[in-house]
Amino acid sequence: MTFERIMVDPALMGGVQTVRGLRIPVAAVLSIVADGMSTNEIRQDLPDLTPNDIAEAMRYAAEAMREHTLPLHPSA
């Protein structure tokens, strides 16, 4: 899977993944989505983002989770 909108530049934002090289980290987009904001609300706060940017940030996160797992408490 390739991602055309997700960029990494060591000289930008400390090398974290950003959307289209903007100063908007993928993690920030994901946090906003997780907080329940709609695409329209996100675009009001971050007008440089497109609906496709937001969708690709979410796909990127889903793919990252397939590649890596985080420690979780065992289920009961």
Explain this structure to me?
- There is one protein chain.
- By secondary structure, this protein is mainly alpha-helical.
- It is 43% helix and 5% strand.
- The chain is built from 3 helices and 2 strands.
- It has helices at residues 26-34, 39-45, 51-67, and strands at residues 6-7, 18-19.
- A two-stranded antiparallel ribbon has the order 1-2.
- α1 (26-34) packs across α3.
- The longest helix has 17 residues, at 51-67.
- The protein is globular and about 45 Å long.
- The termini are far apart.
Provide a compact summary of the structure.
With 76 residues, this protein is mainly alpha-helical. It has one domain (6-67): Orthogonal Bundle (Arc Repressor Mutant, subunit A), CATH 1.10.10. The chain has helices at 26-34, 39-45, 51-67; strands at 6-7, 18-19.
Task: Give the helix/strand layout.
Elements: E1 6-7, E2 18-19, H1 26-34, H2 39-45, H3 51-67
Helix pairs in contact: 1-3
Protein name: DUF433 domain-containing protein
InterPro entries: DUF433 (IPR007367), Homeodomain-like_sf (IPR009057), WH-like_DNA-bd_sf (IPR036388)
Pfam family, one: DUF433
Task: Throw out a few tags for this protein.
DUF433; 76 residues; Homeodomain-like_sf; two-stranded antiparallel ribbon; 2 strands; mainly alpha; WH-like_DNA-bd_sf; DUF433 domain-containing protein; Arc Repressor Mutant, subunit A
CATH superfamily grouping: Winged helix-like DNA-binding domain superfamily/Winged helix DNA-binding domain
N to C succession of SSEs: EEHHH
The rough form would be described as globular
Query: What's the mean pLDDT score?
Result: 92
Give the total of domains: 1
User: What class, by secondary structure content?
Assistant: mainly alpha
Top-tier CATH class: Mainly Alpha
CATH architecture assignment: Orthogonal Bundle
Helix content: 40-55%
User: What is the number of E strands?
Assistant: 2
Number of helical regions: 3
β-sheet strand percentage: 5-15%
CATH topology title: Arc Repressor Mutant, subunit A
| Spatial strand arrangement across the major sheet | 1-2
- Spans of at least 5 consecutive residues whose pLDDT stays below 50 are none
Rg from Cα: 14 Å
Distance between the termini: 35 Å
Largest sheet: 2 strands, antiparallel
Pfam family, one: DUF433
Protein name: DUF433 domain-containing protein
Organism: Pseudonocardia nematodicida
